[in-house]
């Protein structure tokens, strides 16, 4: 990454600023992990450019004007699966029992993003107004955002084969997932915002921050077209699609803050604010018939060649092999969808305990309302009225072993509601809010003599729905995350003889948290009635947080030295990250089976780094 910044003083009160920041991100083995070997990774290349132009003008000593315009964009290119693995007889594969992916990566993607932005503000500092001193600011923010997540053709057929355990036999042909490559979708969003802000110093001891923000957010699809799928034209024919206005949200958001100096050593603060979700540049993509579509069918490898052969699957979207489809043609617009909101309130107490030693206690309450999720409104919750009793096989995923659980009930739906004609996905707001409460305690030793330090501890109480709308009875098992999260950090610096600065960072935090799940297949190992319409049902079998990994403990150290150099300076740093080479897992698998409890990510190994900075 490099940065070029130019400033030009037009006059005593007017200044021009221009910035250009190009960068390139390269990741030749993108996605690699315990269950994705080299052959299933892909090459990732992402060139990014940022431009900004700015005018700063002091019209009078009490009136400032600032205008900024800019662009940021990139093309995230995932279009090169590993060379040597792409061939018609080597499709992408997933073993659902183990989570292992083989064959080339299932997706060659190109993700362009463009954002144009213009901001303007006027700041006014009246001498006296309404019984106090004020710093007033009014401004606008205008955004135009474009996105597209395209898919390229794969020579191996634009599909992925799914294998699963059937009875006592592993890696049996189960499903085929077919995508509609090639596609080059396009979607847009605009955001027009205006705000007012006032920092009001009511007295020497009391200050208020008051604000109001208005936003209009709009999402739409431009006219576009697509070519037919070269491998499955009967599923994905060519088409042209007109412009579509998707949704417009208008919101008014109040913000307020208060700081009260009780005495020279103590201050109490409080804030309140309402925030809304951004509509996002891809909000309209769910209604774009030129965007990604995935159709899933039952697959039987009747010729035994370990690959899909035409004729092995009925590709009728209302036929006996159909399982599911995600496509814009099956998505229903919700013109009255409400914008999710977040309400946040904070209270803090700050006190100087001793000279250069401060304490802060902070409480935060946050609540999210009107969240939305996708619901199949053509196959409602009440349609899942066929109960089936299954036995929980325990963490090992195998029945009749020492870790077996008890009986559970899973639900299938009636055959009269199968087929793509009963798939109608619609965004629906939830009536159930999520909330979080947190407390943070901090001690700060300001730099005096040779050392400084900061120690903090925070904890969060979650009260969050794991499935906001609980679309089927199968999602109602242990539906909430009501866990505590915690973390603590200590950082400090000490100046050694020779003007060498030694810094340290210590962190301890809660490990990976989850809940054990089990995939119940169509065939019951106990010989009970099979699932008729669903191919699998995944249940949570314990409260979220019951299963968790060990706490993470990390120590980083840095030694730095500054050298004068002809009126300039050179800073040399030596860092050691993860000093004790901790290998604590940061992510675990929670699905019952042969990989239950496996670590899928760990703290990066010890790394030593030497760096230098030249300042002039």
Through-space gap between termini? 20 Å
Strand content: over 45%
How would you describe the shape? Answer: globular
User: Mind describing the biggest β-sheet?
Assistant: 21 strands, antiparallel
Whole-number radius of gyration? 29 Å
Mean pLDDT: 93
H/I helix tally: 0
Question: In words, what does this structure look like?
Answer:
This protein has 616 residues and is mainly beta. 0% of the residues lie in helices and 58% in strands. The chain contains no helices and 40 strands. Strand 7 (109-124) and strand 8 form a beta hairpin.
Concise account of the structure shown:
With 616 residues, the chain is an all-beta fold. It has strands at residues 4-11, 14-30, 42-60, 63-81, 92-95, 101-102, 109-124, 133-147, 150-151, 159-166, 169-179, 187-201, 206-221, 224-226, 239-241, 244-263, 266-276, 294-298, 322-326, 331-332, 341-354, 357-369, 372-376, 386-391, 407-412, 425-429, 434-448, 451-465, 480-481, 484-496, 500-509, 513-514, 517-521, 536-540, 547-548, 552-565, 568-577, 585-588, 599-602, 607-615.
Walk me through the topology.
Blueprint (H helix, E strand, L loop, with lengths): L3 E8 L2 E17 L11 E19 L2 E19 L10 E4 L5 E2 L6 E16 L8 E15 L2 E2 L7 E8 L2 E11 L7 E15 L4 E16 L2 E3 L12 E3 L2 E20 L2 E11 L17 E5 L23 E5 L4 E2 L8 E14 L2 E13 L2 E5 L9 E6 L15 E6 L12 E5 L4 E15 L2 E15 L14 E2 L2 E13 L3 E10 L3 E2 L2 E5 L14 E5 L6 E2 L3 E14 L2 E10 L7 E4 L10 E4 L4 E9 L1
Parallel strand pairs: 5-10, 20-26
Antiparallel strand pairs: 1-2, 2-3, 3-4, 4-7, 5-6, 7-8, 7-9, 8-12, 10-11, 11-18, 12-13, 13-16, 14-15, 16-17, 17-21, 18-19, 21-22, 22-27, 23-26, 24-25, 27-28, 28-29, 28-30, 30-31, 31-36, 32-35, 33-34, 36-37, 37-40, 38-39
């Amino acid at each position: 990454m490099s940065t070029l910044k130019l400033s030009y003083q037009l006059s005593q009160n007017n200044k021009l600023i221009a910035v250009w920041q190009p960068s390139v991100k390269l990741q030749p083995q993108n996605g690699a992990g315990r269950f994705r070997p080299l052959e299933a990774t892909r090459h990732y290349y992402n060139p990014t450019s940022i431009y900004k132009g700015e005018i700063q003008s002091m019209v009078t000593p009490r009136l400032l004007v600032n205008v900024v315009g800019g662009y940021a964009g990139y093309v995230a290119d995932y279009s090169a699966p590993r060379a040597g693995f792409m061939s018609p007889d080597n499709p992408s594969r997933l073993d659902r029992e183990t989570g292992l992916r083989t064959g080339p990566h299932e997706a060659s993607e190109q993700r362009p993003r463009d954002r144009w932005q213009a901001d303007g503000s006027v700041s006014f500092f009246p001498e006296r107004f309404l019984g106090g001193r004020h710093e007033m600011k009014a401004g606008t923010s205008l955004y135009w955002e474009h996105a597209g997540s395209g898919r390229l053709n794969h020579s191996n057929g634009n599909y992925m084969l799914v294998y699963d355990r059937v009875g006592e036999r592993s890696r049996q042909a189960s499903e085929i997932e077919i995508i509609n490559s090639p596609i080059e979708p396009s979607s847009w969003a605009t955001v027009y915002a205006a705000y007012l802000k006032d920092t009001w110093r009511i007295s020497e001891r009391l200050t208020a921050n008051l604000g109001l923000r208005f936003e209009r957010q709009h999402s739409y699809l431009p006219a576009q077209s697509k070519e037919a799928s070269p491998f499955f034209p009967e599923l994905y024919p060519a088409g042209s699609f007109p412009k579509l206005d998707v949704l417009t949200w208008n919101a008014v958001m109040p913000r307020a803050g208060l700081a009260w100096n009780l005495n020279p050593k103590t201050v109490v603060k409080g804030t309140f604010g309402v925030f809304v979700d951004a509509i996002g540049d891809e909000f309209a993509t769910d209604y774009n018939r030129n965007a990604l579509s995935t159709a899933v069918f039952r697959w039987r490898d009747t010729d035994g060649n370990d690959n899909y052969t035409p004729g092995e699957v009925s590709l009728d979207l209302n036929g006996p092999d159909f399982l599911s489809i995600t496509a814009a043609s099956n998505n229903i617009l919700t013109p009255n969808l409400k914008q999710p909101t977040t309400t946040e309130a904070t209270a803090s107490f700050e006190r100087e305990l001793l000279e250069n030693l401060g304490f802060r206690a902070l409480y935060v309450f946050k609540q999210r309302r009107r969240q939305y999720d996708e619901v199949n409104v053509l196959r409602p919750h009440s349609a899942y009225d066929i109960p089936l009793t299954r036995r929980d096989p325990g963490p090992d995923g195998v029945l009749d072993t020492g870790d077996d659980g008890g009986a559970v009930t899973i639900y299938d739906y009636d055959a009269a509601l199968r087929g793509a004609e009963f798939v109608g996905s619609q965004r629906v707001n939830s009536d159930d809010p999520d909330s979080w409460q947190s407390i943070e305690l901090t001690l700060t030793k300001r730099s005096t003599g040779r050392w400084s330090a900061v120690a903090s501890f925070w904890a969060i109480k979650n009260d969050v729905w794991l499935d906001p709308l609980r679309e089927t009875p199968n999602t109602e098992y242990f539906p909430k995350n009501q866990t505590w999260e915690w973390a603590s950090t200590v950082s400090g610096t000490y100046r050694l003889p020779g003007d060498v600065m030694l810094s340290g960072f210590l962190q301890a935090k809660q490990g990976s948290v989850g809940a054990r799940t089990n995939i119940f297949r169509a065939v019951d190992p106990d010989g009970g009635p099979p699932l008729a319409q669903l191919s699998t049902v995944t249940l949570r079998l314990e409260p979220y947080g019951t299963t968790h990994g060990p706490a993470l403990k990390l120590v980083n150290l840095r030694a730095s030295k500054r050298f004068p150099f002809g009126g300039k300076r050179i800073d040399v740093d030596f860092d050691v990250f993860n000093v004790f080479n901790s290998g604590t897992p940061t992510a675990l698998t929670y699905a019952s089976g042969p990989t239950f409890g496996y670590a899928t990510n760990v703290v990066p190994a010890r790394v030593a780094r030497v760096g230098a900075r030249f300042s002039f």
